[in-house]
Amino acid sequence: MRARRAQDVPIGPPPLADPATLPHLDPHQAPWPGGEVTSGGVTLHVRETPGPQDTPAVYVHGLSGSATNWTDLAALLSTRAAGTAVDLPGFGHSRPLASRDYSPAGHADALLCFLAGRGRPVHLLGNSFGGAVALAVAARRPELVRTLTLVSPAMPDLRPHPHRVSDPKLLLALLPLIGKRARAELAAMDPRTRAEQVVRLCFGDPTLVPEHRMAEAAAEYAARARLAWAQEAAERTGKAMVAGWLRGESLWSVAARVQAPTLVVWGERDRLVAPRLARRTAAALRRSRLLVLPGVGHVAQIEAPQTVARAVAGMWDAVGAGTWEEPG
């Protein structure tokens, strides 16, 4: 099926679940318990949320993120699905694979094997780089993905984005050759400064981040700094992603092969992946809805968890009822 053109096809908003059907969000919710799990020959560190086991949810973080990026959203969706938030190989507390393959395809292979080993379809959710990985898994193994949620997925984009200059060091660090100095400077930062810098770049309004969440992020950066493989994983993953864009590898053709009902979520203040790609991304997918959130940046599941949860739950409910139809 030919990818839909964004300018030609009406893309409807998702149905939103009644907020009364979602649990109350504890603003001080602690990260879910974690541990290593081996499935399909792949060992990942995961954080698991209890809930109904019919169709579980699997959450995939972005670059320099971890399973804790999904703490609040997994809590809000826990009455509808048990959750497994994974640390991709080399991230969070997951050890790298023996192959040390940090390419997007390598991460997708690892996640695909992990899901296949569990032997049943899941609701798959991914943010940023994790969205690109989830997209590839859904295209390659449609029987494993019941629904797909993409939060600001890292779609290829080499055009200038003016807001990216607000913190160029983080962006320069992704470039394969010229980013060496920026990567060294990032590695030398203390954990609190690094957390504050990431928040400034990723959040639409950084002032809304509560102090306890900032402290959690700083503690996580400090813990990762003690892992021998952490810097290698972040650098090589970022460089491999950008190198793929430079070589012309395209997720747009991958998106056209996805069969699962898909929710695309984007923040209007996203400084990392341009909001102009939101409509094009939704149009490239066969069975999509698009939710664009004003005032929100790159990590909508953290910045606006209640709204994202209503949209995700609304999709799950509609798919279960057979009412999720292709717009237009």
TrEMBL record:
GO molecular function: catalytic activity
Gene source species: Pseudonocardia cypriaca
Positions of the AB hydrolase-1 domain: 58-305
Record's protein name: Pimeloyl-ACP methyl ester carboxylesterase
Spans annotated as Disordered: 1-43
InterPro entries: AB_hydrolase_1, AB_hydrolase_fold, AB_hydrolase_sf
Listed SUPFAM superfamilies: alpha/beta-Hydrolases
Pfam families linked: Abhydrolase_1 (PF00561)
